[in-house]
């Protein structure tokens, strides 16, 4: 059996989820060799798929992106020591095939059984109201018209802008992976800047409702267009934030004990979703932060340097009195890496730190000098150990 035949054999077993432990390790070792990377890239994806999964007529540019994504994700799973079932690979590849290279950038699946139900961990994904999905951060400045007639404008792969005259109803959702940020210009003119590891669900237009309501997971900065007739409401899992026109940041990552709302301009009202009468609502003034405690359902206000809360928009990381354990989680999200901390004694320590555009190795070097630990960086994984 020649080497290419052996690689093909292992690839097919991997896609069928029938690798032994030894075959699994052998397959990933071969993937490190550029010869096999090129072989995988040049071979036909459909030749290795079950009949019902085959996808035909993949443009070369799209095919290249697909294979790069498979390789990247496969190496990431090797680092974490987990087996990745084949359908996850197929879903990751299938997302890219939704882009038609040349002419219109809009393309529908050949039949309904190919509808995508997941999204790539490495790309900003738009989940549209009709169930279709679109990769956003790989697109250049362009105008896209969906099958339903919805007009979307993409600016250099980091901003999506909706047509103010759109009459299409329904909600879209944007999901931003670790290591990236993205902006959404809503149909009312409001701008939402999403931080890494965040998602936003929003109506395509607000014409049919008395209020402008969106749902946030993670963190986002909002610059809301003023409309006294239609208050703007941001829903998180527990807390609602209501505004008319203002600029503010919401940090509602699930690992946080509190949901923090930092107000730069205007005024916002914070209230628990279960507080129907707004009995315990709090109103913030510019320069104040509202902290909603998830455990006891209370809201506390305090004056703060709110610019620190939105520094992430400019790739600056500013932390004040943050525990090392929480800092490592934030670094994982910002750099799209995994940090395995085996030196548990430092997790409860607190620090103040400012990071600009420093790469992760410089950040880890700085922290190691403070806390006296050693670390290694391999691919996208950082391991911290006691000296």
From TrEMBL:
Chain segments annotated as transmembrane: 89-109
Molecular function terms, GO-annotated: sigma factor antagonist activity
Domain Protein FecR C-terminal: 317-384
Signal peptide segment: none
Domain FecR protein: 173-269
InterPro entries: FecR, FecR_C, Ferrdict_sens_TM
Keywords linked to the UniProt accession: Membrane, Transmembrane, Transmembrane helix
Superkingdom classification of source: Bacteria
Record-given protein name: FecR family protein
Organism (species): Zunongwangia profunda
